[in-house]
């Protein structure tokens, strides 16, 4: 399987963490987003959305990280893998959290922090309130459950841990959300190859955000 990625991208990192958990070998294809390599005609022909992560498995080309996570477990996971069990109710909750990550948390995080770092936007305001509302929802999930979708670590944790690590990249103080902070530390300690994949990628993402603090005129 060819996997087009950039190590700083949280969406690529969640897939890399799950591939590691499933003991899959990905044929890593580095796309240098700093050089706009995703816009090259060969890559754009593969993925007209020109984004990473992109997975190519025989005649299937797939982008959108959460779709890739689900595909990897469905195709290569053990039958009834705990990461994404077959039970409709358990799966529904995992899907809900994955869509929450995609449509709410990661979107609100980017909506607030990109303008702050790259456009000199004023800190605070409504976008921060929306982000903190989303963090409040996540805190609520984790007050009632050890993992974001219940008693076991699932795909939703892998997706959300990559998003939450971006808060560390931008030095957001997570102590206001003790359940998220405790879960995040637990994920760091238990997910295979967390340091190599998510920690080092998060540090690269941090450097990228910090480069935006002093934009070249
Ligand atoms: N919702 C997508 C987001 C993917 C995304 O935004 N990727 C960024 C890197 S973090 C990218 O490839 N940007 C380059 C571009 O869109 O041209 C996912 O979860 O896979």
TrEMBL record:
Catalytic activity: RX + glutathione = an S-substituted glutathione + a halide anion + H(+)
EC number: 2.5.1.18
Domain called GST C-terminal: residue spans: 87-209
GST N-terminal domain sequence ranges: 1-80
InterPro entries from the UniProt entry: Glutathione-S-Trfase_C-like, Glutathione-S-Trfase_C_sf, Glutathione_S-Trfase, Glutathione_S-Trfase_N, GST_C, Thioredoxin-like_sf
Molecular functions (GO terms): glutathione transferase activity
Transferase recorded as keyword: yes
UniProt superkingdom: Eukaryota
GO biological process: glutathione metabolic process
Keywords: Transferase
Family: Belongs to the GST superfamily. Theta family.
Subunit composition and interactions: Homodimer.
Protein name: glutathione transferase
Record organism: Anopheles culicifacies
